[in-house]
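Peptidase M16 inactive domain protein
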Amino acid sequence: MSKSIKNIEEVNIPQEYELVFTKELKDIKALGIYLKHKKSGARLALISNEDENKVFSIGFRTPPEDSTGVAHIVEHTVLCGSKKYPSKDPFIEMAKGSLNTFLNAMTYPDKTIYPVASCNDKDFKNLMNVYLDAVFYPNLYTNRAIFEQEGWHYELDEETGELKINGVVYNEMKGAFSSPDEVEDLRVREALYPDSPYGIESGGDPEVIPELTYENYVAFHKRFYHPSNSYIILHGNFDIEERLDFLDKEYLSDFDKIDPKSDIPLQKPVSKDFTDSYSIAESEDTKEKTFLSYNVVTGIATDTFTIGALQLLRFVLMDAPGAPVKKALIEAGIGKEISSSLSIHMLQPNFSIHATGTEAERKDEFVQIIEDTLKKIVAEGVDEKKLTSAINYSEFKYREQDAGRYPAGLLIGINMYTTWLYDDNMVFDLADAGQNFDLLRAKIGTGYFEDLIKTYLLENEHKVVFTLVPEKNKNEKFEKELKEKLEKYRASLSEEDIALLKERAEKLRAFQEEPSSAEDMEKLPTLERSDISPDIKPLKNIEKELLNAPLIWHKVNTNKIMYLRLNFDISDMSAEELKYFGILSDILGLIDTEKRGYSDYVSETLMYTGGIHTNIEVYTNNTDKNKVLLNYSVSFKSLVSQAAMGLPLILEMLYTSKINKESDKRIVEILRENLSGMEMDFETSGDRMSALIAKSHFSVDARMGEKLSGLSYYKFVKNLAENFDSEKEELYKKLNSLIKKYFVKERLIISLTVDEENYDEAAGKLEAIVKEIPNGDKTGESLLCEKIKLEIDKIKANKKSGLLAKGYTASGQVQYVSRAGNFVDAGLPYTGVLNVLNVLLSYEYLWVNVRVKGGAYGCYSKFNRNGDSNFSSYRDPKLMETNEVYENMVRYLENFEADEKEVTKFVIGAVGSADIPLTPFADGERSFNAYMSEINEACIKKSRNEMINTTAADLREMAKYVKAVLDEKVMVVVGSEAKIKENADKFDEVSSLLS
């Protein structure tokens, strides 16, 4: 039974615990209680409030001593069976069979945390039990195969006899190290913290991971995974006495205090410049592919006020559009993209300034510009208005407490660890830091911020300047050297050694092939279908009008905030205009207006709002997948009391932005920065890219998406950036004509999320700007949909029989393999059973065959209402083997057998995914999206009933849905150049991802 309290006297703390202190946490309307378990030494922070989305987290300080990834591998493997729950993968069983709102584990540079969350009391207790047993009593001590599967192991190719290395973490980190960002992060930390755990890659360096022995891995767990080294958080509306009693009796009382010796040493200041390289593909140009960074260590994490001030300075100096240091570097042409970071999840945070897409010989100039600009700012003073607006914006975000799909308690807990890990007295400081905003405002104009710049950025002796240069085929060279090393090792093995290696491989294979016993599965805590509510979340759409424009009001308790969307219907645009709308979305709000420069414009928006953003929304009709609405959307949020100051900024952005030669320089900067961002995103999100490209062969929706954010758009932006002088006149003409034609009242539909108490005030303030929107023509016939349908028809007409396979080579060492198709095209209707199928495939069939056996880091299925579907792998060492797994799904489903309990598990997992609690903003967005797609409550109720009542027979019926998707015969792979070329005969087209 849940029971939140407001005063410590409302609860009896069990005698097994010492009450250290309590603290009222006004900002989150909670009581903080800090306890220590007397016998085991465990630390517990309880946050009692009315939040039904309860969070439990147990964290351990886990400073690594080498880059073998032992902390990361232990994180994976404790969740592979335990004393109470000996089945092979309790984590996945709970993922597919619980109502969790969060279930994961994370390895940081100095800690590993295990958070879970649920709104259901019974489920929350089940999740706590499984996680506690996993961390304290894992099966890793008795089953070496767990280490080999998740960490690393040798494989002997049965046909060639070639020796290879495989393992989930090994492949995950090969994928991570394909990103120059990851390489830069590790090399900089190695230089900044040479005598500290922070100079070590806790996730694991692929070159070093195979040095980890089973014995050292077990010893790491034994040393650090003890209650004396634990930090336990409980957040939300839960029964305090009952949970404390459970923790003591079931786990903590089994342990006596120890000294885990997990303190983090302070790194003495070091200073150096150095260079390293990262891999690019043979086909890529090395020009403007260098990364430069200026890195300083900035005090300690427990000085939260200073760290908060540095976060503000980082935004004002570096991240805000027009920020002076960023602007100086861009104007000097130092890089395509200038960014910054402040790494706070460590005892000694570091502040970094990054230049992406530059040349190594500009390193000295890069440093000189940074330091000269900072000296000038110190002499003249930091812009006081920009500091004020940054503080206002930060406070808005802090008090809004919008964690998106994540539980609020999760983010509160993660923040708590950033101080509590290093100081037992600083448990709740960051959960109740609202008073700091007024204190920071009081520091403006006093010289405080200027002194911070001098101390931490200019006169800091703990500094590293790093240059990361491109090297063609570095990954391929690594793979070649690894192959030679393995061949040499293979040749050194005796027949007895080889027999032992084969025996281990066979044991691992047998472990992976053999399902958990029925007896072991029975031990896992479960829910029943009776634990599921049949009710849907209601849609909150109240149709109104504002000055003849349709207004959809979403009546939600928003805590005096208004969330607004002004949507202009652009569905009748021409196909040629689509990409120009993409450019509009990129530049509006980031260029000068007739009233002020872009930097001042952004500062003004942050002074009074939680942000103004533009994007293109695509709404696919619920009953006709080829009927697609496109809206140019302006989103806005602010306190209702501040809206009168913020709303006019929308009009200023839409109708007075200087889309002309006065903005030449700024628009080129934006184009170059966006290009750099797309290049990074394409390589690190290969699963998203491969799926989008695959679906663009048959889906109107996806083809539009590809033209707006895929390779087509990338090539368009690249051409504009490279040929701007010859293209700009046409560009400005197009963009201004779009604004004049489409941003008119006749095309407007308004979405407003606000509580009833504040609706009239919000609508009144909104009316003042709606009346200023110009009149124009109504939306005409949807030319774009027809044009794109013709493109798709042409693709299908020219498509050969058999599989259409496209390969896109990237600089990484792993693959992202996607198959896609549409079941509606095969005459199959959407059904709620597909939600259950998604759980079955993602957490059972694909998990076992692509991740567990194949070694990929991730794999999943996705089924949309419009029929668009895909199967994708993530950081996958395989290629055609994964496609074969996809092909075998139909047979798997045709022969699927499961009892009621097993099917119920998949149903509960599907319901859990569907029932994630919504923030006020998300509640309004969900309702408006349903309205635009013509999805009503009856439709949602029908899908939920189908989902809740799914049977094994229903899941067997899904074989024809999967067959329909696979029968589209489209496969797209983003992957390593070597692997794709090795399989060149399997592809119809092979090209460089970024050519």
